[in-house]
Amino acid sequence: MKFPASREKDEMKEIERQCDVRRGSGAGSSRREILQWLGMAGASSLLPHGDLLARAGMPAALTGRIDIHSHTVPPFYTKVMEKEILATGHPLPTWTPALHIETMDKNGIATSMLSPMTRVVQDSFSDKSERARKLARQNNDYSQQLVRDYPGRFGHFAALPLPDTDGSLREIEYAFDTLKADGIGLWTSYADKWPGDPVFAPVFEELNRRKAAIFFHSAPPICCRALQPGVIDSVVEYDFDIARAVVSFLKNDSFRRYPNIRFIFPHSGGTLPVLANRVTESLPEKRSEKETAAMMDEVKQLFFDVAHATYPAPLSALTKVVPVSQILFGSDYPIVPYPVSAGPLDHFGFSESDLQAINRGNAERLFPRLKA
Ligand SMILES: [Zn+2]
User: Fold this and answer.
1) CA–centroid distance, residue 79 to ligand 1 (Å)
2) Which domains does the chain have, with CATH numbers?
3) Which of 125, 264, 293, 315 has its CA 20 to 30 A from that of 134?
């Protein structure tokens, strides 16, 4: 069974609309382009969400949240990364697909978008390694199998072996054309480079051509790791690096050059909302009110998940910078338990319709196949 033709048409229109907003033009994408972006998803992924769950004999938690920010901890990863994980002094949380689903059900999560674990792929600039390519492929095959095994419950942001350009281009093709991934998962930095750096341009040009959604996960750049004894990088550096990544895109005019990409950043934007005015006033070559306003408009079109950042301060700052339409629920499970983000979000003071948009409506716009 496929969507009724009218519904499929509505989805096309919505993706066209999102791309047009990013382009800042009224120009529409061709139907052919959109079908290509969707990767001509197989009949199973075009089934209405409710049918998928009913067929799978699962409770139809269809009105539950869509969690944009969650991770897998696959067995191959813990094996390969054992030494690195031990060196951090912070063992990884217990995780299995069944436990993930059980915890989602207990916490009203309908669907979780799966991202690679931090540093699942090696980040050395000197090494276009087979190891990185193999890890990315293993991660992507593993995650997409979960999408198939638990219909409707998982989505998938595929890993790339960046900074390996050739390997990444090959993995983009595999992720979209073979696996039908929902998007791509990248880091906010790679060693001493941030993603707007021209060295990454071929990869972003291809992602723009494919109208990809990209989820950026925080990562500590090489300059700023283990700066203080006993303070792990995620405490401070993760949230600073989100601002650095966005600045790298603004500086290189990337948001305008890649208008078809839907950019998603984590943790309510980290330090970005507090710095946004300073950045948009100081960064344009021609400092003028017009340039500042234009740059701020680019920021307003980005998407942000709220994982581990729904406290009054970060969420207030984010809502002062972007409209509610750009805010997505995220948890960072299994690293962070669901109530840490969900509790303060529920009590922040959003209207019911805004909360519904954050919990799933905005994610449905980004990923129409998840529509309940
Ligand atoms: Zn995370």
Assistant:
1) 20
2) 5-370 (3.20.20.140)
3) 264
